[in-house]
Design brief:
It contains one helix and seven strands. The protein is of the alpha+beta class. A five-stranded antiparallel sheet has the order 6-5-4-1-7, with no helix packed on it. The chain is globular.
């Protein structure tokens, strides 16, 4: 029983440490620009995707390099992961 609990704990820790983090070595800071008030952080790469949150004009987001597809970039904002439209991001290399 103790072995099973330990194995479950080890698996959970591994998923949090390895699977829950993004490769920040290939990422850039991006500044939200070219919008009136805010842009949407979406759950997938589509304007039809549910909005996770709004990102205000002038805020910084973490953009993952090589993530461009269908006009969207993979991004992180305040610990939330999703996708933003490329047209609203000004890149600043980290």
């Amino acid at each position: 029983m103790l072995k099973k609990i330990f194995a479950t704990f080890l698996l959970a820790v591994t998923l949090v440490v390895v699977g829950g983090q993004f490769n920040r070595t290939e990422a850039y800071w991006g500044l939200v620009v070219n919008c009136r008030e805010w842009i949407s952080l979406r759950s997938y790469r589509s304007t039809e995707a549910p909005r996770i949150t709004r990102i205000p004009l002038g805020e910084w987001v973490w953009i993952y390099s090589g993530s461009y597809s269908n006009g969207f970039l993979e991004a992180e904002y305040n610990g939330m992961h999703g996708y933003v439209l490329d047209a609203y991001i000004k890149y600043i290399k980290d």
